[in-house]
Batch of 4 targets.
Target 1
Amino acid sequence: MQAFGGIDPASDLRARPVDDARLDQPVSSLKGVGDKTASALARLGVVSIRDLLLYRPRRYEPPAPRRDVGELLAGEEASLDVVVVNASVRRTRRRNLTLLEALVRDETGSIVATWFNQAWLADKLIPGVRLQIRGALERGDFVVRTYEFGSDPIADITPLYPASEALATKRIRELVRMALGHIDDLGEPLPASLRAARRLPHKADAVVALHRPRAATEAELARQRLAFEELLVMQLGLAAQPGEEKRCAPVLRDPGELVTRYRHLLPFELTPAQEAVIAEIDGDLRTDDPMKRLLQGDVGSGKTVVALYALLRGIEAGQQGALMAPTETLAEQHFLTVEGICAELGIGCVLLTSSLPAAAAREARALLETGEAALAVGTHALIQDQVVFRALGVAVVDEQHRFGVEQRHALAAHRSSDARDLVPHQLYMTATPIPRTLALTVWGDLAVSEINQLPAGRKPIVTRWITHGRASEAYRRLRSHLEEGRQAYVVCPLVSASDASEARAAEDEAERLRQAELTGLRVGCIHGQLPTRERRELMQSFAAGDLDVLVATTVIEVGVDVPNATIMIVQEADRFGLAQLHQLRGRVGRGEHQSYCLLVSRWKEELTDNATERLEAMVETSDGFELAEVDLELRGQGQLLGTRQKGLSDLRFTRPRSDQGLLRAARDVAIAMGEADEILDVEVSRMFGDADHRGRA
Ligand code: ADP
Ligand code: MG
C-alpha cells in the first residue's frame, strides 16, 4: 500500500488507545440530532459517534465541471453557482410526483432547477439565497442531484453514503462532518513500526480521507488502510479464541445400502458439483474427528439433496440425524421434502417446531429419545433442553448465517443419551456465499465446500424491472403463464410496522388481487401469522397444484420449492434488500420451464440511488457471489454476512472479493505479532465482544 500524498506515514505519532467514552457517545450528542434522526441513523446501523466516523461511503461522485448558466450543454454533468429567483411546488400530471421548481440565475442567464419529491425544500429556497447545485440539463431544465446552500463550491469529490428514505445522503454528509470534530478520539491502534513498514497512514488521516478525499485514489487507499486494520484485528481475535476441547464423533466408514437406495429414488442425476461435495463429506465422516463443514451454494443449487445424503449416512449406521432451519416455513418445507423420501426408505421422521401443540411436541421428543424416529427436522426447538436424542450422528444447519453462534454450537455440542459421549458430525449450509479465503478465515474451524453449478437444464431466470404504471402488463404475463399450466407467486410489499400488520396487509392485498388482477384464479395467501397447520396445508395445496397463485410475505424467502411455479411478481421491490430479493427470486427457476421474476417498483424518480442500484443489480446478474458483493457495497457494512456472526458484522471496509491480498497480509502480520498488544487488544475486544474475550486474559 502506498502513502497518502502529503502525509508522512512514519511520522512519530505513537499508537495510542481510542477514547472509548467519547466515541461511544450516542449520535444524539451531536448538535441538531434529535430522536427522529437518531432512529433513522440507528436503522442504518449508526448509533454512536464512532459509527458515524466509520460510516463508509458506498461510492464517490466524481467532480463535475463548473459552468455558467449561459454555457450549459444538454446532458452534461455540471455544477453551478446561482441565486434563487423564486420557487414553487407542483404535481406532475403524468406520474403524480411532487416536483419542486426553482428559477435560478447567475450573471449569464437563468434556468429552472428541479427536484423530485423534495417539496419541503421549497421553504428554504427564498428569493436571493445563494445556492451551489450539481446536476445535468435535461429537456431544458436543470435536474439537481446535489446541492449546498452558500457560496462554497461543492467539494470536487462527493461521498455518497448508504442512505434511506428517512435520511438522505446529504444529511448524512453533514452529520459525518460534525462527527469529524471527534477525529482525535479515534486513537491509533496500529504500532508505529507496522505503519512505517507497510507505509500505512494514521487512522485519523485515513478516516478524514475516507469522507473528504482529494482524489479517488486517496479514498481507496484510506479504505484499504481501514480494511487492513479490521482484518488484522479479526485475525488476532480469532487466534486468541480458546481452543475447543477435543471431542469425538461416530466413525462412518463406507456408504451403505440406504444411501444407494436414496440415490435411486432421486428423479435426477446429481451434478458433478454435488458429487464432489458428497465425496468430501464421505471423507469427513470416515474419522472420529467431527466433520465441521460449511457448504456454500447459491439458492437452488441443490444443497438440501446433499444434506439429506449426509443425514442418511448417519442413519444407516444406526445414528440419528437432525436438520435445523431458521424459520418454521423452511423447516416445514424441508419436512415435506424429507418425509416423502423417509417413507419410501422406511425411516421414522419427525417435525419439531415451537408452534407444535404440546402433546405433539412431547410425542416427537419421545420418538427421538427412543430412537424410533431416526430423523428430526425443525427450528430452534431442536436445541431446547428437553430434546434428547438417543444417538445423534449428523447435524445439519441450514441458512446457518441466520443463527447465532451459540445456537449453532448448541446443536454441535449435543450429547446423546446412549452414553458414548460422542458429538455429531456437522454440516452448515448457506446461500449467502462469501469468497472462500474469507470464509476459511472467518470460520477458522470450518472446512469449506461449494456447489458452484446449478442442476443441468435449468434456464437462467429472466428478471425484469418495471415501474408500477406498467404493473398490469406484469399481471397479464402472469396469466399467460397460468394458462400454460404454470403457477405463480406474488410477493407483497414490506410493511415494516409489525408481523401482525404485515399479515393484515398481505390478506388485504390477496383480497384486492382476487377482485382485480387475479379474478377467477385460485389464490392462496401465506404469511407468518398463520397457524402452522394452515400454512402447511397452503404450501401442500400449492405444491399439489390446487392453487394457481400464492400471495405471500417474505415468509417464502427461503426453502419453498415448487418447480412448477415459474413466475414471480415482487411488488414495491424497491423496498426490499438485495439479499432478500435474491432469495425471493430463488423460489422460481426450479424446474424445466423458463422462469421470470418481475420486479415492480415505484416511479424511478421516487427511488433512492441505492434502491435503483439494487434493482439494476438484480436485472444484471443472478450470481449470488456477485450480488453479495454489491449488497455489501451498498450497505457499506458487513451486515449481509449475518449480524450475529461475531467478527463478520464488524468488517466495514473489507471488499470480500478484491481484498484477498490484504487478508493474507493481515494474516501474516497477525502470525508475526503472535498476540495483540494492549492497544490493539481493545479493538479485538470490541470486535469479539468484551465478556468472552477479556475473560481469557
Ligand atoms: P438449495 O437448498 O440449494 O436452494 P434445493 O436443494 O432446495 O436447493 O434444490 C432446489 C431444487 O432443485 C429442488 O427441487 C431439488 O429437488 C432440485 N435438484 C437438486 N439437485 C438436482 C439435480 N442434480 N438435478 C435436478 N434437480 C435437482
Ligand atoms: Mg435450501
Target 2
Amino acid sequence: MKQRAMGIEFIIDGLVKNGFAVLPQFLKQHEVNALAQVMQERKNLFHQAGIGRNACHAVLEQIRGDEICWIEPTDPLAATALAQLAELKYALNSQLYLGLDELECHFAIYPVGSFYKRHLDQHRGEDTRVVTIVLYLNPAWQAHDGGELRLYLGEEQYMDIAPVGGSLVVFLSNQFEHEVLVSKRERLSLTGWFRRRLI
Ligand code: OGA
Ligand code: MN
C-alpha cells in the first residue's frame, strides 16, 4: 500500500478506536518548508484570532494569543496540502459516513509566549464542525520549545503532543477539550475543521 494510503488508514483506525489520531510525517519536509515560507510571505495578512462569532466575537489575549489567516479552498500555494486533506475527507466519508462537506481552515502563528486555553472547537449553538485537523509546520521543533497541544482524554487525564513539522493531529471536534501550552518559539500550523453539510 502507498505510504499516504497507509497514513489515511492509520487515522481512520485511530478515530474509530479512540476518537483521535496523531500521524507523524503527513507532509514531507520540503512540503512543510514550502508552507512555512508561504506563511512568512503573508505575515502582513494575519490578524489576531477571536473567540466566538458575530456579537460574541472578542479578542481575548488571556484566552488565546494566536494570529490567523484564512485559507481559500482554491489557494494555489496551499494546493498540495489541501489535496491531501481532501483525500482524507473522501476516506472519512466513504468509510465512516461522516457526511463531511467543506474544510474551513486557516494558518495560525503563535508568537513567542502565546497559548490557547482549554476549549472545545465549537461555536455556541452550532455543531457543524465535526473533525478538527491540525497540521504543524515547524521544522526541528525541540522539547524545550514548549507549545504542546494538550488533548484532554478525561477531566484530568491528558496527552501532550509536540507541534513537530509535518505531523497531523485529527480528532472529533465535539469530544475533546484541548489547549495549546505556552510556546517559547514562534509556532506555525495549518488548522481546520471538516464541517457537516447543513441540511
Ligand atoms: C485551535 C486549536 C490547536 C493547535 O486553533 O482551535 O486548538 O495545536 N489549535 O494549534
Ligand atoms: Mn481548538
Target 3
Amino acid sequence: MLKVKPISADRLPDLLRLMPKAELHIHIEGSLEPELMFALGQRNSVAMAYPDVESLRSAYVFDNLQDFLDIYHAGTLVLRTEQDFYDMTHAYLARAAADNVVHAEIFFDTQTHTGHGLSTDIVINGLHRACVDARAEFGMSASLILCFLRHLSEDEAFECLEQALPLRDKLVGVGLASSEMGHPPEKFARVFARARELGLRLVGHAGEEGPPAYIWSALDVLKVERIDHGVQALKDPALMARLAKDRIPLTVCPLSNLKLRVFPTLAAHNLGRMLDAGIVATVNSDDPAYFGGYINQNFTQTFAALGLTAQHAYQLAHNSFEASFIDDTLRRQYVDRLTATFESFN
Ligand code: HPA
Ligand code: ZN
C-alpha cells in the first residue's frame, strides 16, 4: 500500500474530491432528486403527494429504515417509461462523475416497478442505456445489480429473476434490499444459489439495523461476496476477524446511517475502527437524494467528524477498486490513476 505523505486538514476535501473512486452502494431510485421527481410526475400525469419540491424535501426526516422505505417507495410512482429510468440514471452518473467516481455498480429493483404495472425490460433497458452512454460522455464505467426485495417472498424473488433472465447480459449481479428486520438472508437461500449458478455476482444488505447473525448467514448461506452496510459487525469480534481474514468488503454509507439513526452522530460512526481492524471498508452514498449527500459529501463529512487522514482516503479509494466487479486490467488502471493523483497532490 502506498505510504501517503501527510496532508493538512484544510487540503483534505480537495484530495477527497479529486481522487478517483468507485461507488458500490447506490440505489438508483434513491438518487431521484425532488426536482426530477416533479418533472417526471408532470410528464407522466402522476399526482404528487406534496405541493412542491420544498415541502417534499422537508418530509425527508426518518426515525429508521422502514420510515425511509415508505417515502422512497412513494417517490418511485413517477417512473413510468424507459426514458424516465434513463433520465434518472443519467442524472446520477453525471453527478457521480463530478465527484470523480470512475466506476459505479448501481442497485435497482424491478419488483417495485412491476408492482406498479411496468415490465422488467423497461427498467433494465433504461438503466443500461444510461450506463453505456456514461462511458463516452463521462469516461466512466458502470454496471447493474438487481436487488430482490426482502420483505417479499422468495417465490416472488424467483419470479423477478426469471423475468430478468432475457436481459442477463445487462446485469453484473444480484443483491438483497428493503426491510431488514424479520427478513434474514437465509429466506433467500435458493434464489441466491440459482443466481450463483447463472454466474451472477452476489451481494446483500446485512447488519444495517439487523444483527451480526444476518451477516454470518449472508456469507455462509447466500455466499455473498460483499456485505452492504455491515456496520453491526463490530458487535461480534469473531465476525470482524472473518471479514478481515477473507477480505470481504463492506459498502458503508455514513450519511445514510446518520439519517436512519443507526448512529446518533457521524462522530460515533465506526468506519475508522473498521479500517483499524483491517476491514476492506468503502464509502458510498446509498440514497443520496434522501440522505443529504453524494459520495464526496459522505467522504468529507465523515473525515471531518472522525479525524481521518489522507492515508485513510487512499485506503478507502483503493478498497473501492479492490471490491469492484471489474476485470483486473481495468482495476489496475484505476489504481494507477489513484496512486498518480496522490503522488502529484500538493
Ligand atoms: N437498506 C435497505 N434497503 C434499501 C436501502 C437501505 O439502506 N436503500 C434503498 N433500499
Ligand atoms: Zn442500501
Target 4
Amino acid sequence: MDFRSDTVTKPTKEMREAMMNAEVGDDVYGEDPTVNRLEKLAAEILGKEDALFVTSGTQGNQVAILTHCQPGDEVILEAESHIFLYEAGAASALAGVQTRPIQGTRGAMDPSEVKKAIRGEDIHHPETGLICLENTHNKAGGKIIPIQTMKEIYEIAREKDVPVHLDGARLFNAAVASGIPVKEFSKYTDTVQICLSKGLSAPVGSILAGSKSFIQKARKWRKRLGGGLRQVGVLAAPGIVALEKMVDRLAEDHANARQFAEGLSAIPGITIDVDGVETNIILCDIRETGLSNEQFLTKLKEAGILAGPFDDGIIRFVTHREVTNEMVQTAIERIAQIIAGK
Ligand code: TLP
C-alpha cells in the first residue's frame, strides 16, 4: 500500500494500448501528430492559446521561469512552494533569478503581501520578473488556493506588469474538489504547468500552457535544456488518455483521503486537521505518539504501508488510483495496532 505520492501511479491498460498504437513523427520538427494533439487539447482545457509537452513538472516550472525572466530578476513565490523547496535550487542555478518567499496561510499568499513585495523603480533593486502560485498547494497538504485570492493577485500583477505563473501540478484535484473548471483557475495566470503523471496516472510528462508567443520562446528553452524529444508521441498518447479519461475519478481519491484522515484522527497520539483535507493529501502530526518519523515509517513499512516524511513529526499520505478504499481501511486498522502496541 503505497501512500508516498500520487507520482507512483502506473499507466492504465488503455494508456499502454494508446502508447503502442500512437502515430509518431519528429517532434523537434513539430511533426509528431500525437504530441500536437495533446498540446492542442491541453491548451483548450486550460483556456490558453498554446501548450508545450515537457518531461516533468520541474521542467515545466523551470522553462516558465527561464522564459519569463532575465538573470538578476526576482521571483515572488510562497515560502513552502515546490519551486522554492523541491526543485534543487533550479531557479537560481538555471535562470539566475533570486527568489522572494512570502509565507502563506494554508498555502495562499496574502495579495497585499504580494503587492508590497513587488519592486519599484530603484537602482539598488532587482526587477520583479514573475509571481508564482501553486494550486493545489502540496506542502500545505493539498489545499486549494481560493480562486478569489488568485484573481486578486493577478489583478495586482497586471497593474504592475508582472506575469503570473501557476504551478498546477495538481490543478485538476483543485478543480474536481471545488467543482470549478481548471479554465477558471488558469484565467488568473499568464502561464500554467499541469502534471499528467500524478493523480492522472500517465507515466511521464507535464504541460506548460500560455500565449502563442510565450510558448514559442518556451519551446526554445526546452530545447536548450535538452528537452527537445523526437518520436515522443508514445509518451504523449497516455497524456491524452489522462486528460480525457482520468480527471473525474480524482473525486474517489479525495473521498478516500477524507476517510483516511477521519480514521487516523481517531488514533490516540495522531493529530490531523480533518477538515483541512481538501483533496488527496493528508498531513498528520505524530509527535504525541513519542515515535520519530523514522521509527513510525519503519513500523508502517513492516506492516506493508509506505508513507513519506514531511517536516519533523509530520507524515504525508497521498491517495491515488492504486490505493482502494479497502486498502485505506486496512491501513487505518494496522496503524491503530502499531500505535497501540508500540
Ligand atoms: N512533487 C513530488 C515531490 O517532488 C515532492 C511529490 O511527491 O509530491 N509542483 C508540485 C506542486 C509538485 O508536487 C511536484 C512534484 C512538482 C511540481 C514537480 O513535478 P515532477 O516530479 O514531475 O518534476
